[in-house]
Write a structure and sequence with these properties.
188 residues, alpha/beta
């Protein structure tokens, strides 16, 4: 399962949210976690080169290869100005075929809306890519007030339950769609 971290801002809050979520996935025995951090230098360079219409210069796995090799995703996204980050949009659009018939869940954070406006916009984008978005999300309203100094949510029980629901759905959809793609390749 891939965890796509959508913020590339210096000093981003995404590190705290994504580290917590990775630890929640680690409690399970049915999933391996593969973090795709858009601020990773190789990915940032690849996306920059995409804007310049050039090929990636190194031999690191491309974003398309990373996405293509996974059965499901959770996008960790902030809400910036009632939307999601531009780097996340670029990364999603950079890959096409690899998103098809795969589940996508969301962990969002932000101010009063907790990133939910960004999630609603992302649902439309992923629908166009033939991905299946999950109904249940994990959302942190006024996120900077929701975590302690150790990076743990103040409401550990509530957030753990929300994460478990999301991950249970992701596991079901990931397995079901993987088996479906194996029997009958997805065509759009």
């Amino acid at each position: 399962m891939g965890i796509l971290i959508g913020s590339v801002r210096p000093g981003r809050f995404a590190d705290k949210v994504s580290q917590w979520f990775v630890s929640e996935v680690g409690r399970r025995g049915d999933m391996e976690t593969y973090v795709i951090d858009l601020s990773e230098p190789a990915l940032a360079d690849e996306l920059k080169l995409t804007l310049e219409r050039s090929a990636a210069a190194d031999d690191a796995p491309t974003l398309a290869q990373r996405i293509g090799g996974l059965d499901g995703f959770v996008v960790v996204t902030p809400e910036y100005n009632h939307g999601y980050p531009a780097a996340l949009k670029l990364a999603i659009d950079y890959v096409y075929r690899e998103w098809r018939a795969k589940p996508v869940g969301f962990v969002s954070y932000g101010g009063m809306a907790g990133g939910q406006r960004a999630v609603e916009q992302l649902r439309q984008v992923f629908a166009e890519l033939h991905a299946v978005t999950l109904r249940d999300t994990v959302s942190f309203h006024m996120a900077w007030e929701q975590f302690d100094g150790e990076g743990r949510p103040h409401d550990q029980d509530g957030t753990a339950k929300a994460a478990a629901v999301l991950l249970d759905q992701l596991a079901w959809w990931g397995l079901t769609l993987r088996e479906g793609r194996a029997v009958r390749p997805y065509a759009s």
